[in-house]
Amino acid sequence: MEKLFTESDRARIREAVQAAEARTAGEIVPYVMPESGRYEVAVWRGASLAALLALSATVLASTLYEGWGLAWLYTGWGTAAVAVAAGMLGALLAAYVPPLKRLLTGPRLLDETVHRRAMQAFVEEEVFNTRDRTGILLFISLFEHRIEVLGDAGINALVSPDDWAEVVLRIRDGIKTGRPADGLIEAIDLCGRLLERKGVQLRADDENELPDALRMRRDPS
């Protein structure tokens, strides 16, 4: 994550949060993780699928091949060795090839895991701990390619879920184009302008209730 968000980038993000919060009562918490879960199910699915394909290929070979060169393949130990080797290869590919891991995990489980981890982050960072319940979590989970915006009660009373679509799009476009810090900064600025427009007014005695720094966490739940 340090390659995506350098020390200079983190300083710029902190300044963007400060600038956005200077014109609204919202408290913006940017948060990024490399992944939200371990997804062991993808490894098991990869191993099972590879073993099944290897066994199917073995049966096909035994049906079509009439020579003597593959005699060992027709024995019990030969078939078992092929299945085990294929299963191990499938498990390794599922564990270390991100696109394959995402495919085998499935979008539903990815969505559920990221949402659950975002809710956990909301509590851990005490985004709820503001006077008017105006905290906002911008949660980015890199492996899953998922972004969640979670607002507290004071925000959700004024801002609809659809209003965050452009915020999510700015972050996603920044990551896709190799400008993750710029995308996040644009999203933070957009949050400030959106909250100002929606009437999340800054009070005269308003204080900075939550830290402005980008949170970077490594441990999937």
Task: Describe the secondary-structure layout.
Elements: H1 7-21, E1 27-33, H2 40-64, H3 76-96, H4 98-105, H5 107-124, E2 135-141, E3 146-151, H6 153-156, H7 165-176, H8 180-198, E4 215-216
Parallel strand pairs: 1-2, 1-4
Antiparallel strand pairs: 2-3
Helix pairs in contact: 1-8, 2-3, 2-4, 3-4, 7-8
Radius of gyration, Cα only, in angstroms? 24 Å
Identify the CATH class of the largest domain.
Alpha Beta
Low-confidence stretches: none
Number of domains: 2
Trace the largest sheet across and list its strands: 3-2-1-4
Give, in order, the helices and strands: HEHHHHEEHHHE
The geometry reads as elongated
Question: Can you give the mean pLDDT?
Answer: 90
Based on the coordinates given, report the CATH architecture of the largest domain.
Roll
Structural class determined from secondary elements: alpha/beta
> Total number of helical segments?
8
Report the CATH topology name of the largest domain: Diaminopimelate Epimerase, Chain A, domain 1
